[in-house]
Write a structure and sequence with these properties.
- The chain has 10 helices and 13 strands.
- The protein has about 350 residues and is an alpha/beta fold.
- It has 3 domains: about 60 residues, Nucleic acid-binding proteins (OB fold (Dihydrolipoamide Acetyltransferase, E2P), Beta Barrel); about 160 residues, Rossmann fold, CATH 3.40.50.300; about 70 residues, Orthogonal Bundle (Ribonucleotide Reductase Protein R1, domain 1).
- The strands form 3 sheets. The protein has a 6-stranded mixed β-sheet with strand order 10-9-8-11-13-12, with helices on both faces. A 5-stranded mixed beta barrel has the order 1-2-3-5-4.
- The termini are far apart.
- The C terminus is likely disordered.
- The structure holds guanosine-5'-triphosphate, magnesium ion and zinc ion.
- Magnesium ion binds next to helix 6.
Length: about 350
């Protein structure tokens, strides 16, 4: 089987980067599925199951292991298996805070052009979650696309539009339903050939259903229609890339309960939440916008120019970012003193025996 990798986003600049590698004479491909210890890689010649070389495994943090969407250089070991020697430099990454961790990032997908932020119009809808996702991708040049699924069910469209109005000039909003082919078609038109979109959102909102509808095929497993019993049950368990015929690559992800943010850029936060335009008008340059005199943000909040929920989330995400940053710094400090200790150990006379 021959694959045209330009449909997967292979480009001249990736080619140049491969030429700079000492492994440039080996094959290249894109990670299409991430398993626990191996990776499915799509290359010009077909699909291969690949493992990592020892060099790729040891002395690396988990976040540096390949993830779905990565471009890799690999060497065949037999007709359908290979070993990965190198990752090409990453770009446009979707990370999140690894669940259960305070300082560790998890790489979800790479080379992402668009993030489809998927929520269903029922009680899953939550503008605070949308803001959270948008903050995470803000510094990666990933274009957010807001997708509201299950619009065949009864809901108040104006209410949802209103809750997203401060975000809508940064991200287009789509209402979709699997029973409305038009709504799927409109979403398909967002994708250009060679582009990659990742689908993120809670379990059960219909990410995999949407990808199947966009591809016109039942490729991914979806939850059986089961009313309320399906809630909270996770159907997809892996991050998987699918080529949409005619245009673009779609990456399905398993729904997550909590999406922890690792973007600690304060300016990005203000920009995403549309609060930045007030900050410059505060009386004090170092205003924290909590209870200072002459704070333009508080004033806007009182005038109703900033929504209460948006402001609360601003404080919450700012606290989370601070917590993340200090945890990472703390970890670095510990690692430094540990490596000093190890170095000292190397020079100690006991080593000689
Ligand atoms: N009424 C209605 N139901 C939908 C629509 N889209 C998806 N569903 C249903 O929602 C349920 C969950 O869909 P999935 O596609 O499995 O959800 P998911 O987001 O992939 O969930 P995880 O894989 O667990 O993260 C299924 O029963 C779908 O049939 C829609 O547009 N309208
Ligand atoms: Mg799914
Ligand atoms: Zn202020």
């Amino acid at each position: 089987m021959m694959n045209n990798l330009s449909l997967y986003g292979w480009s001249e600049s990736l080619f140049q980067q491969k030429q700079a590698s000492i492994f440039k004479d080996h094959m290249h491909g894109r990670v299409s599925v991430t398993h626990k210890t191996c990776y499915e890689v799509v290359s010009e010649e077909g699909f291969y199951i690949c493992e990592l070389t020892g060099n790729m495994l040891y002395g690396r943090e988990h976040v540096e292991y390949p993830c779905t969407g990565d471009w890799v250089i690999f060497q065949l070991v037999d007709s359908n298996r290979g070993i990965i020697h190198e990752l090409l430099p990453r770009k446009k990454m979707l990370y999140r805070l690894k669940s259960g961790s305070v300082s560790e990032k998890q790489a979800i997908a790479s080379y992402v052009d668009k993030a489809f932020i998927v929520q269903s119009i029922d009680d899953n809808f939550n503008a605070r979650r949308t803001e959270r996702f948008m903050l995470q991708i803000a510094d990666e040049e990933i274009q957010p696309v807001l997708v509201l699924t299950k619009s065949d069910l009864a809901f108040n469209k104006d209410e949802i539009k209103n809750a997203l109005k401060h975000l809508s000039d940064k991200a287009p909003v789509f209402f979709t339903s699997i029973s409305s082919p038009d709504s799927i078609e409109q979403l398909r038109e967002v994708m250009l050939p060679g582009e990659t979109a990742v689908f993120i959102g809670s379990s059960g909102v219909g990410k995999s259903t949407l990808i199947n509808a966009l591809c016109g095929q039942e490729i991914l497993q979806t939850a059986a229609i089961s009313g309320s019993t399906g809630k909270g049950k996770h159907t997809s368990t892996r991050r998987e890339m699918i080529l949409m015929e005619g245009s673009g690559v779609l990456i399905d992800t398993p729904g997550v309960k909590v999406f922890g943010v690792t973007n600690d850029n304060a300016d990005a936060l203000s920009e995403v939440l549309d609060i930045g335009r007030f900050e410059g008008q505060c009386r004090f340059r170092d205003c924290q916008h909590i209870n200072e005199k002459g704070c333009a943000v508080i004033e806007a909040l009182e005038n109703g120019d900033i929504d209460n929920g948006v402001y609360e989330n601003y404080l919450k995400l700012r606290r989370e970012a601070w917590h993340y940053t200090t945890s990472v710094q703390e970890k670095r400090k510990q690692e430094k003193s540990f490596s000093k200790m190890v170095k000292k150990g190397k020079n100690s006379p006991f080593k000689k025996y």
